[in-house]
Design a protein that fits this description.
0% strand
Length: 68
């Protein structure tokens, strides 16, 4: 779930994994691993990614349902 939220928010910005990684100060392989759900982020990494994308950690942990 967290991985798909990272990817969704990154895509909304039009960013590549490399761009997000650079903005957050993590490696591209970290972003890839998280988005592909092969690893869960620690609190520090989650905070860095959220901050880089201009969202909160809560936005990643508790995604809002979009009204249809």
């Amino acid at each position: 779930m967290i991985g798909s939220e990272i990817k969704k928010n990154r895509s909304k910005l039009g960013w590549t994994q490399a761009k997000l990684a650079d903005a957050a100060g993590v490696s591209q392989s970290t972003v890839n691993t998280l988005e592909n759900r092969t690893k869960h982020p620690d609190a520090v990494t989650l905070n860095l990614l959220a901050k880089a994308m201009g969202i909160t950690v809560d936005d990643l942990l508790e995604p809002k349902e979009v009204a249809k």
